[in-house]
Design a protein that fits this description.
With 96 residues, the chain is an alpha/beta fold. It has one domain: NAD(P)-binding Rossmann-like Domain (Rossmann fold). Helix content is 32%, strand content 19%. The protein has helices spanning 18-28, 44-48, 61-75; strands at 7-11, 32-37, 52-55, 81-83. The chain has a 4-stranded parallel sheet, with helices on both faces. Helix 1 links the parallel strand 1 and strand 2. The longest helix has 15 residues, at 61-75. The N and C termini lie far apart (50 Å). Belongs to the short-chain dehydrogenases/reductases (SDR) family.
């Protein structure tokens, strides 16, 4: 009997971000990791480490649908964990 790796999609995975760290941690725990960011180049080091990267703009319904379809195609329809780490307008600062 073979067991499939659990899959996780993490948004907001630019180099040096919390998402970057989460992607590496999930991979170290045996997950199949999909890292997402608006810019593919910002995830180059993750890709080099064997993490699957996808371009995702969380403000675009089209982009969200494309990533959903791509991950479904790559996994046969399976996604076990979703970590919504991306922040729209991150450059504007946090407000409490």
């Amino acid at each position: 009997m073979t067991t499939e790796k659990k899959t996780v999609l993490i948004t907001g995975c630019s180099t040096g971000s919390i998402g970057d760290g989460l992607a590496r941690e999930f991979k170290s725990r045996g997950f199949r990791v999909f890292a997402a960011s608006r810019n593919l180049d910002s995830m180059e080091s993750l890709a080099k480490d064997g993490i699957e990267t996808v371009v995702l703009d969380i403000t675009s319904d089209t982009s969200i649908a494309e990533v959903r379809d791509e991950i479904s195609k790559r996994t046969g329809g399976s996604l076990d964990v979703l970590v919504n780490n991306a922040l729209e307008g991150a450059g504007s600062g946090l407000r409490c």
